[in-house]
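re: ur question from yesterday

yeah so i grabbed the chain u mentioned. its 258 aa long if i counted rite. heres the sequnce exactly as i have it in my notes:
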Amino acid sequence: MSTVVITHGTRTRHAQRWTDALVLIVVLVALWQILSEALGPDVLTTPAHTVQRAMHIVSDADFPASLYVTSLAFASAFAISAVAGVCLGLLLGARRMAGDVMEPLMMGFYSIPKVTLYPVVLLACGLGLWAKIVFGVMHGIVPITLFTMNAVRNMPPIYARAAKTYRMSPGDFARHVLFPACVPEVVSGLRIGFSLTLLGTLIGEMFASQSGIGRMLMIAMNRNETSTIMALALMLFVFATLVNMLFLAWQRHLTHSD
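ran it thru and got these structure tokens back, copy pasting raw so excuse formatting
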């Protein structure tokens, strides 16, 4: 009987979550429509026209090449940010003094507008793929590192004492105790780092690339093509939202498993 009740409650929560999401989407689309009618199509295109423009962009023969360029740069930047950020966060979290020194330095670096570093990145990496990757990593690695570091610091001390009792090596402790205990909060950092890495990659394409979706955005901005800007923004918004939903589902699964 208890299993049936739990299953029914889980289904009810899932149905309520989807209902809330649907209501939110309807409200946002309605507000978008109202604002577009109030401001005019030159400022904000309607949802229907934006979707039509997005479909036209996707069907264009040049779009797959731009999508590939952006995807390659973003995937590379996020992979570097995730691996380096998690490893650095684990190290700084385990060594509290080093973490206390590095945390304000990382926050100070992150407060700098990254666009001001564009000439340095351009001179170091040139006009191409690596400049976009560096821009993406600059945006994504700090939040992933900080989330991971705080996850290690917030780990219950009993875990470390148990590892000492069983005389676990540092490698076994990291693999079997430290990382599994920190995974839920690390996933939160990856979720934030994902969005910021995407932002950094697009900024890199806008200023340091001859191709890609960021370059398409820059051209549309220079030409004042509102419909193209809105269509590209909508595609990026949908992509980022779907991936963040996957990260959230993963995080809930890990939390529930614990």
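noticed a couple things. The chain has a mean pLDDT of 84. also The domain at 46-257 is CATH 1.10.3720.10 (MetI-like fold).
anyway ttyl
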